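Form 12-C: Joint structure prediction
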Amino acid sequence: ERMCIGSRIQHYQCVYVFWSVISPQLRSVSVDLNHDASLLIDIPDALCERDKVKFTVHTKTTLSSFQKPDFSVPRQHEDFIWLHDTLVETEDYAGLIIPPAPPKPDFDSPREKMHKLGEGEATMTKEEYTKMKQELEAEYLAVFKKTVQVHEIFLQRLSSHPVLSKDRNFQIFLEYDQDLSVRRKNAKEMFGGFFKNMVKSADEVLISGVKEVDDFFEQEKTFLLDYYSKIKDSTAKAEKMTRAHKNIADDYIHISATLNSLAADDMTANKKCTTWLLEGRVASDQDLKLTELLRYYMRDIQAAKDLLYRRARALADYENSNKALDKARLKSKDIPQAEEHQRQCLQKFDKLSESGKKELTSFKGRRVVAFRKNFIEMAELEIKHAKNSVTLLQGCIELLKSN
Amino acid sequence: MADADSDDGEDIFVSNSNPVSVSRGVSQPDRVTEEPSDLFSEEEEAASSTAAKANGVHSDDDNDLFADANVELSTDKSGSSARKEPSGPRHASSFTPSPAAMQPTSLEQLEEEEAKDSFDVDVAVTNPEKVGDGMNAYVAYKVSTRTSLPMFRSKVFSVRRRFSDFLGLYEKLSVKQSLHGCIIPPPPEKSVVGMTKVKVGMDDPSSVEFVERRRAALERYLQRVVSHPSLLQDPDVREFLEREDLPRAVNTQALSGAGFLKMINKASDAVNKMTIKMNESDTWFEDKFQEVENEEQQLRKLHVVVDSLVNHRKELCGNTAVFAKSLAMLGNSEDNTALSRALSQLAEVEDKMEQLHQEQAASDFFIFAELLGDYIRLLGAVRGCFDQRMRAWQRWQEAQSTLQKKREAEAKLLWANKPDKLQQAKEEITEWEARVTQYERDFDRIGMTVRKEVLRFEKEKAKDFKSQIIKYLEAMLQSQQRLIKFWEAFLPEAKAIA
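Section 2 - Result
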């Protein structure tokens, strides 16, 4: 018996998911990014093996910079992180909002439940077990969908960005048909994570402390700092809400199974189960739409904050270079170097400010559009599920009353 | 004053107000106003539909003029045929004119009466009120009765009772020989935890919920009692419903501690320990007992899950409320006007969702969980009946063995030739022969009673479960319909974002 369960668990960990088959409306928390036919990217399927997820990254392009017009490569989560980090560490992109890295696939929750299910099999009826297994599979699938979605969006953000889409490492990521892990290791050693550390130790104090010369940035700074803390809070609370919903769905499964084994008139009992199983699906959809939306934009705003940080740093550098120039003039020593340094700092700062402004403005627009789309879809889904519930419940009640 | 049944200084309470909203906006149609007429508007289903044919149990009140009247007036909703065919000798008397001129003189009139009042007697328990102060305070409930039965002094009346009175009623009924074999509905459990909280004097939601829970449980208990044909005829029941001042019940110790089920299980153990095992000629009893045990187990399992459901639902309520606030804050932060508005609207929708969840939680608890709790205890009571039958059998067997001993003793005395002792021995033999006959009859009677009771119980249970589940699903249905409205109202707001 134990062996059987073990192998069953293995089986569920090797799940092939054909992404394209899955409901297309649940595809993105961002706006449809795959517009530009010159570079279309998607993740048509993924394979889950034990702890690792292997994504199939598929590219269709008309650009001559690529070797083929249509090709696919297998990629792991770590490859995406590598790509993200190299972009962040590229100084040329300091004035851009780097799309947030996709979070690591997290199958802990369904895996733990699967384990518990295996252990508790003896105490359940066959029916209860089957139903719980089905729900567990659905949960696995939901986590799967989520992770594929979030990895796909990351790539699509890059492909639709005028500057980032041309990045050399991005191209390597899309095209290189060997295992990237070797390159990844080398790259890490090269960069030494210098800039990343800098960004990581980003101090909100620095951003808020620097004297802002530009109204636009002043406003953005205030807005983003406040918005970030609020959206972080909302995300955490949405997650809790979704979790409670899932617990209820699980309870209903146990209830329906036990009722089935009790009730004399079993026909109706069956109907009842399906009503209650809808709870599980509502929880999933709610999760995808609302929680994911909030979570995504929380990370995006963090990326925007990072941009502000880099600009603040550049401003600080510029101010320091001014001071240095003054000192040099005072001492009448090394003036040309100081002047050059100051000019460079100013240039860098201006460049960051200019591109930063563009980025932040388009970010606003993007955010508003995404929220709108997701809110509409979420409301429509809630209505759809509730209407289904109503029909089922009415049928059930009729049946019971007429008996 | 230290009471033996320190049940409950159910004290600090809430008002006389209706025990309606344990959670806000609970829409439970049953609990209403004080007028008896309204109280019973929903009670039809709960009313007894005592089958006219089922009433073969010997009543204590053979001399009660009204006993016959009761039997004949009891409705049988399941069909008119039963009414027309009185089943059993008792009914014969219904056609003879009696001094208690309450009996209808013709069948037509009888049917008219039935058509008019589709219930015999309805009871309701309402208006919990604190009486007294401090540690001796308790809660008194209003027990209202509406009936068409002539055995009661009036048609509509009410009294005030406290929790220990209900327990006392159970105590009285459970020891009656004449009711042996009957499934006597168990009273609600005592609750030290619940009462302690209330004693501390909080008006908080959990105390309110506790009182409402108790009130509803007491009501269901009484409804089950009066819908039982034999119990309804019992004078203690009548006294409970009618008498202004009831003497304080003092023998409720048995029901302390873990309560009813513990008591049943203890008695069961005693029966099982008895040495003479029964040879069951009729497997019906064994099979049925097994069924009952299995069912009780299943219900317990179910109860555990439903409890979990109730807790998770309450958790969801809390989480949703918190989320709604957070979302509102986010909306305030948002600089795009339309999006900000939409976020605030979404926060309001989530607030409404929280309210829906609250109501659903109440429904989960009061309709579903309590139903299961009741039936777990009722199944315990059923087991108790089987045990009573066992004890009756054992008593019969023991009497037989005593009789045997007496006969042997007589034989010895015959040999030993002691005439005066012989006389005594003969007398004892006669006495014991009578007892053996009596106990055998008792055993048979109790067997018949148990059978009848179990069949009746199963019917009532099926009905009860069905009606409660329908209620539960209807509450869910309402909830979903409101949910649709909320989201449909939000949709245009979402579309308006620009």
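Section 3 - Comments
Residues 342 and 492 of chain B are 9 Å apart (CA to CA). The domain at 119-247 of chain B is CATH 3.30.1520.10 (PX Domain).
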